[in-house]
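so my prof wants the structure for this chain in the tokens format not the other one, which i didnt know existed until like an hour ago. anyway here's the sequence
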Amino acid sequence: MQIVLINAGKRFSREWIFRNLHYTFLPEKKYAITGPNGSGKSTLLQILSGALMLNEGRGEWRLNNSIIEADNVHSYISIAAPYFELIEEMTAKEFLIFHSSFKKFIHNFSAETILQEAGLSNAINKQIRFFSSGMKQRLKLAQAIFSDAPVILLDEPCTNLDISGFDLYYKWIETYCTGRLLIVSSNDKNEYSFCNEEINLQQYKFSKSPV
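here's what i got, hopefully its the right format
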């Protein structure tokens, strides 16, 4: 799958987050969206997911040279981000089974297999509200990376992870993200050191005069 931004710009009120952004995200490559806090990394990631609209320019999502309709983009994209909440009244197993009703898991993995991969087997029937912040982050990453989607979007993916969590993250990237378009939003080099290309949003702050 390919995502193309053409003369893309996004603003909130009269403040432009970025402007005049031309970029093509190619299949099977890994990209990092970087910049200091408040530079618009998360905003751009939500635009790439189809959750936010541009104020100028346009975005296109293409699969096998065909344009995907905006209403269907979500079917091809899986995302993990701090602002996407888990359903804390559910157990970890219930949450993954519920999620799989919208997007199947790769390799026909079961919820039990994924939780074992995530080191959460002992918490399989525990309500998510009793999870530590690190356990919640592992679950967020698991639901995104193990979803059968050609595009994976990760926003600050290692938030609250300890050293073993970082190791697990690298393992999943290498093992399960090959052959898919992966875009990581972060200002921490450790979270995107494996990426092929870097888009620094600071370069698109003043590319046009303000309106």
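also thought this was worth mentioning. The two ends are 34 Å apart (CA to CA).
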